[in-house]
Design a protein that fits this description.
2 copies of one chain form a homodimer. Chain A is of the alpha/beta class. Chain A folds into 2 domains: about 150 residues, 3-Layer(aba) Sandwich (Isopropylmalate Dehydrogenase); about 160 residues, 3-Layer(aba) Sandwich (Isopropylmalate Dehydrogenase). Chain A is built from 12 helices and 11 strands. The longest helix of chain A is centred in the last third of the chain and has 26 residues. At the A-B interface, α8, α9 and α10 of A face α8, α9 and α10 of B. Chains A, B: One of its GO terms (cellular component) is cytoplasm.
Chain lengths: ~350, ~350
C-alpha cells in the first residue's frame, strides 16, 4: 500500500487551526496510509499541536507559511500578493510532488484562482469545475459545476460529465455511472441552446448518458452524476441549504410550541436525532476542484472538526483511487475519437 | 363591491373536473363577490355538477368547449389545432371581457403560448414571466421567472422586478416591497454579464432594490421578491420540491424503523401534522402568468381540490387588487423616465 500525503491549509475557514489541526490528527489515527503536511504560521501550529498533545514527526510535518488569505479577499489580490500564504504553499506542495493532494476551507475564489495558476488544468480540460456530493433518497449524487464557471459552453458541460463520471466510478467503484444533464424539462426540445448542444455531445459520447433531468431528480437520485453550469449549480446548492434550514427551523418551532409538544419532542428525540444524522451536511463536506493537475478539495468555510475530517478523507480517497489518471485517460480517448 | 368573474379550464390538470368543479363550488360559497364560468364539455360538467348537487345559475355559468389540451401536447399544436379547447375558450373569455381572470391546471407551455397569443403582453413588457409564491422562514416570497423564459435579457429581468413588486404590493398590501436579484455571490462583481447589467438597471430604477441575493435567501425571506431567469428559477423550484420530498421520506422512514420509533411517531403525530400543514405546498398553489393583458393563473397539474381552490383565490385576489393597472402604471412611469 502506497502512502498518501495531504497538504492542509491550516489557516483556511472560519475556525482555522482550532478545526483543521485536530481534524488532521484524528485522520492520521484512523488511516495508517495517510501523512499530512500542516501549512501555516509555525508558532500557531506548534501551539495548537501542544494543546492537542500531539507532536510533529514523519507522518505529521509542519511547513511554515507566513501569510493568510482572508475569507473575503479578492482572488486576484490573493494570487498576486500572497505568495507565502498557507493556501498557496499547500498548493505549491502538490505542484512539487511533496503532497498528493491539498485541502483548504479558505475563500473559494482564491483557492480556484491559485490552484489554476499553480497546477494548470489537465490536457483537454478547458476549465476546472467544483464537484459536490448531495444526499438523495437512494444514497447520494455528484453534482458539478457548483459555481466555478458562470457561463459554460456545451463542450465544457461534456467535460464536466466525463470528469464527474470518472470521479464517481473511481471513488464509489461504480463501473459505468449514469450522467444526467440538468434542464427544465425532460423533453429534448426544452432548455436553452447551450444545454441542447451539450445534450447532443453527451449523447454522442461513450458516457452512460441518461438524458435531461430536472431539479427534483438531483434529490430523487435519478442519476449518479448531474451536470450543470456553475450559476445554476450554485443557486441550487444554496437554495437547498436555505430550504433545509427553513424546514429544520419550522420543525423545531412546532415541537417548542407548548409543554405538550415539548414532551412529544423529548419522546421523539432519538428519532429526530437519527433523522438529523442521516441528512447531516457535514457528512458531505468537501467539494473537489475537478480538472486540475492535482487533487484539490475545498471544505465549507464553516466546517467543524467532523466536517473537515470528511474533506481530508475525500481528498485521500481520490488519490487512493487514481481519479486524475482516469480522467486523463478518458479525455485522451475522447480526443482520439474526435481526431 | 364589484363582482369578480373567473373562467375555469375544467379539463386541465391530472384530475380534471373531479377537482376543478368542486373547488369552484366551494370558492363560490366562501366568496360572495365571486362568479365562475366553468369551461369544458357541457355533458361532463353537467354530470359533475349533478354529482355535487350543484346547479348552474347567475354565479355559476357553464360554457361549452368541445376540445381538451393534453398535458403533454406540444404548445404550438395546441395553439393552432385546438381553438375550441377548454383552455383556449377560458382565455378567450378574458380577452372578450366576459371574465376578469382565468385559471388552468393544464399544460404550462400550451397555457403560456395560448395566453400570449390571445391576450398579448402589456405595453412595455417584452415577455410574460411565471411568478410563484414560496414559503420562507419569515412568511413567503414571490419568485419569478419560474420557467417561461430560458434566456433573458437584463431589461427583461428589470421588467420581472417591476411586475413582481407591483403584484406583491397590490395583493399583500406591502407599500414598497424589497426586490432581490438571484446571483451566486452577494458581491457586485460576481455573476454573469447579463445579471450584472440587470443589477445596474434595478439599482437605477425606483424599485426598493435590495441587491444580489443567493439561493438560500429565497427561503430565509431576505426579500419580498426574487428575480431570476426562467432556467434558474425552474431548476430551483423543482430542486426544492425534490429536497422537500426527500426530507419527508427520510423523516417517515426514521419514525417507521421499529415499534419504539412508531410509538414516538404516534405521540409526535399532532406536532408532525402541524409542521406538515405549515409547509403544505397546496397552500402556495397558483402561479401567475405575469405581464399579459389579463390575469391568468396556472395551477399545479397534480393539484387536489384544496390546492385548486387556492389557485382560484389567487386569481380573484389579483383582480380585486388591480394588479394589471398597477403594473401598467409603473411601466409607463419607467418609460417616461427613460424618454
Amino acid at each position: 500500500m502506497r502512502n498518501i500525503t495531504v497538504a492542509i491549509d491550516v489557516m483556511g475557514g472560519d475556525h482555522g487551526p482550532h478545526v483543521t489541526v485536530p481534524a488532521a490528527i484524528r485522520c492520521l489515527a484512523r488511516h495508517p496510509d495517510l501523512n499530512v503536511i500542516l501549512v501555516g504560521p509555525q508558532d500557531i501550529i506548534a501551539a495548537e499541536l501542544k494543546a492537542r498533545r500531539a507532536n510533529s514527526g514523519p507522518r505529521l510535518i509542519v511547513r511554515h507559511a507566513s501569510q493568510v488569505v482572508a475569507m473575503d479577499e479578492a482572488p486576484a489580490l490573493a494570487l498576486r500578493g500572497k505568495k507565502d500564504s498557507s493556501m498557496r504553499v499547500a498548493i505549491d506542495l502538490v505542484k512539487s510532488g511533496e503532497a498528493d493532494a491539498c485541502v483548504s476551507a479558505g475563500n473559494t475564489g482564491a483557492l480556484m484562482a491559485t490552484a489554476r495558476f499553480v497546477l494548470k488544468t489537465l490536457p483537454g480540460i478547458d476549465r476546472p469545475a467544483i464537484a459536490a456530493v448531495m444526499p438523495t433518497i437512494k444514497g447520494h449524487a455528484l453534482v458539478l459545476d457548483m459555481g466555478a464557471n458562470v457561463d459554460c459552453t456545451a463542450e465544457q458541460l461534456l467535460q464536466f460529465g466525463i470528469m464527474g463520471a470518472m470521479l464517481v466510478s473511481a471513488v464509489e467503484h461504480i463501473p459505468n455511472p449514469s450522467v444526467g444533464l440538468l434542464n427544465i424539462g425532460e423533453e429534448a426540445i426544452k432548455g436553452n441552446e447551450m444545454v441542447k448542444q451539450a445534450a447532443e455531445l453527451l449523447r454522442a459520447s461513450h458516457l452512460n448518458f441518461y438524458g435531461n433531468v430536472e431539479g427534483n431528480d438531483i434529490f430523487l437520485g435519478t442519476t449518479d452524476v448531474v451536470v450543470c453550469d456553475g450559476f445554476v449549480g450554485n443557486v441550487t446548492l444554496k437554495a437547498s441549504e436555505g430550504l433545509a434550514k427553513m424546514i429544520a427551523t419550522t420543525l423545531r418551532a412546532e415541537f417548542k410550541r407548548n409543554w405538550l409538544t415539548r414532551i412529544a419532542g423529548l419522546i421523539a428525540l432519538p428519532v429526530l436525532n437519527a433523522f438529523k444524522r442521516r441528512l447531516d451536511p457535514r457528512r458531505y463536506n468537501g467539494a473537489t476542484l475537478l480538472g486540475l493537475k492535482g487533487v484539490v478539495v475545498k471544505s465549507h468555510g464553516s466546517a467543524d472538526r467532523f466536517a473537515f475530517e470528511h474533506a481530508i478523507e475525500t481528498a485521500s480517497d481520490e488519490v487512493r483511487n487514481n481519479v486524475l489518471k482516469r480522467i486523463t485517460d478518458q479525455i485522451q480517448l475522447l480526443q482520439r475519437v474526435a481526431a
